[in-house]
Write a structure and sequence with these properties.
The complex is a heterodimer. Chain A is mainly alpha-helical. Chain A is built from 13 helices and no strands. Chain B has a domain of about 110 residues: 2-Layer Sandwich (Alpha-Beta Plaits), CATH 3.30.70.3270. Chain B is about 35% helix and about 15% strand. In chain B, strands 2-3-5 form a three-stranded antiparallel β-sheet. A two-stranded antiparallel sheet of chain B has the order 1-4. The chains are: A mainly alpha, B alpha+beta. The structure holds iron/sulfur cluster (2 copies).
Chain lengths: ~350, ~160
């Protein structure tokens, strides 16, 4: 791809070609993400419908596939209402503050061995920073709306994110130790060689903790206290209508996809194939099944997205004190304990990552 | 006991159980009825749109006794009556507020001459707020329109009354 671009625009400076190349990569990823969200909304409604023994949306387009596009058009056409006493500037800014980090985090996600927008050295750190940045959007949205419910929602979101950020950070420390690098591409490379050498076996508790705190980070069920419909109507985005609401929605689903893709990359070997390392497959005609590719990453991500939705269909919302005690008293001790165990394993040279 | 609790918590047993329940439901037969194309059967006792009935000779049944308006829990019925030229007492105004009505069917039970009835029509709408007031003419027209089907339904149900 890049060679093609270089030959096509050979009259330009290589710097300019690099810029165009990066920009087109960004455009591709962004468009794909928005399409993913469109699909995800449909997928969620359909899956939840099936779990309720209903059929879900089925009116717009064949089997209801155009439902989320219809919803989007509806949302875009709605009036944007800004409450009288709201802080206009921050009210309009906060949806973007939520969306931009959600999109920016995808810059370091390695989709396949070749495709990654920015292969920076401190990829993991960058991700940790950006995923926590989203909470500013939530807090500002709640505060700027000048509504009690929105404010309560954003306070809850803030406390929740602080609590789960720590567990998430510790889980990432485990991955960092195992992978021996902050570069996501190298972490995936460290997991090469079949299902058994992926990090989810030696780091199983961290894998679970990471996913749970990821759910809490994205404010999804069963941790969506920030928007608990029953008690605070819709939490931080109660005052938003039309496109503002649509952006919150977009950011939430992009974050969901991000957590899923990161869980696959950090614990399930990213682009590695499920069949890699099975010797008779590698030599037969099916050897393409063992090749690492984007396809495997997509399957794993889709699985985690399904789990997100599955969780939402299965469990009631946590109570606030339960949420806090889960975060502080269960998840954080488990991660610290497991990092200790990992250290011992590392020193004793047990486990697949031993050098 | 505490240890069992702890193990339960750490292995997420309850969560896995919950997941299995919903996964089973995922593959269960779907019960959705594709409404406008497919309809579920209605009981003859179904209480839908209100109507005023007539005798076979075309005379309106209502004798303006106002029992229905007295029994109506939502106070949806307004009646005014006058003496007609032949000396009988008839309503000059018989309004039902369709937004107030809760379709309880008490008016039908109270009526001594089976004048006010509930048909099993539930698919109707109005486009203006004023149209929620069902006047005597509208009610009689509804009665004429669905006369046969209403009489049949009442007959089917009469065995149980
Ligand atoms: S059905 Fe019930 S609420 Fe409606 S008019 Fe008759 S008595 Fe009143
Ligand atoms: S509809 Fe029946 S109950 Fe109501 S005023 Fe007429 S006769 Fe009386």
């Amino acid at each position: 791809m890049k060679e093609l671009l270089t030959s096509f625009l050979s009259f330009l400076d290589p710097q300019w070609i690099n810029l165009i190349w990066s920009l087109s990569q960004i455009a591709i990823v962004t468009v794909c993400l928005i399409l993913t969200v469109v699909f995800l909304v449909y997928f969620e409604r359909k899956v939840i419908g099936y779990m309720h023994a209903r059929v879900g949306p089925n009116r717009v387009g064949p089997k209801g596939t155009l439902q989320s596009i219809a919803d989007t058009i509806k949302l875009l056409l709605k009036e944007v209402i800004i409450p009288d006493k709201a802080d206009r500037f921050f009210f309009l800014l906060s949806p973007l503050l939520l969306l931009i980090p959600a999109l920016a985090a995808w810059a370091v996600v390695p989709f396949s061995p070749e495709f990654i927008i920015a292969d920076i050295n401190a990829g993991l750190l960058y991700l940790l920073a950006l995923t926590s940045f989203g909470v500013y959007g939530v807090i500002l949205a709640g505060w700027a709306s000048n509504s009690k419910y929105a404010f309560l929602g954003s306070m809850r979101a803030a406390a929740q994110m602080v609590a789960y950020e720590i567990a998430m950070g510790f889980a990432l420390v485990g991955v960092l130790m195992a992978g021996g690098s902050l570069k996501l591409g190298e972490i995936v490379a460290a997991q090469s060689g079949g299902v058994l050498s992926w990090f989810w076996i030696p780091l199983f508790p961290l894998f679970i903790v990471y996913f749970i705190s990821g759910i809490a980070e994205t404010n999804r069920h069963p941790f969506d206290l920030a928007e608990g419909e029953a008690e605070i109507v819709a939490g931080f985005h109660v005052e938003y209508s039309g496109i503002g609401f649509a952006i919150f929605f977009l950011a939430e689903y992009i974050n969901m996809a991000l957590i899923s893709v990161l869980t696959s990359i950090l614990f399930l070997g990213g682009w590695e194939s499920f069949f890699a390392g099975i010797s008779f497959l590698e030599t037969s005609v099916f050897s393409f099944l063992t090749e690492p590719s984007l396809f495997w990453l997509l399957i794993k991500t889709l699985f985690f997205l399904f789990v997100f939705i599955w969780l939402r269909a299965s469990f009631p919302r946590y109570r606030y004190d339960q949420l806090m005690s889960l975060g502080w008293k269960v998840l954080i001790p488990i991660t610290i304990l497991w990092i200790g165990v990992e250290c011992v394993m590392y020193v004793m040279q047990i486990g697949p990552w031993s050098v | 006991m505490k240890i069992i609790q702890l193990i339960k918590k750490l292995t997420l047993i309850d969560f896995i159980k919950g997941f299995i329940v919903t996964l089973k439901a995922f593959f269960r037969r779907k019960v959705t009825v594709q409404y406008p194309e497919v309809k579920t059967p209605l009981s003859p006792r179904f209480r839908g749109k209100l109507a005023l009935m007539r005798y076979d000779n075309g005379e309106e049944r209502c004798i303006a006794c106002k029992l229905c308006s007295a029994v109506c829990p939502a106070q949806a019925i307004t009646i005014e009556s006058e003496e007609r030229s032949d000396g009988s007492r008839r309503t000059v105004k018989f309004d039902i507020d369709a937004f107030k009505c809760i379709y309880c069917g008490f008016c039908e039970e109270a009526c001594p001459v089976d004048s006010i009835v509930e048909t099993n029509i539930f698919e109707y709408h109005m486009t203006e707020n004023q149209q929620r007031i069902q006047t005597k003419e509208m009610l009689l027209a509804t009665g004429d329109q669905y006369r046969d089907q209403t009489i049949e339904n009442k007959k089917k149900d009469s065995r149980y009354r």
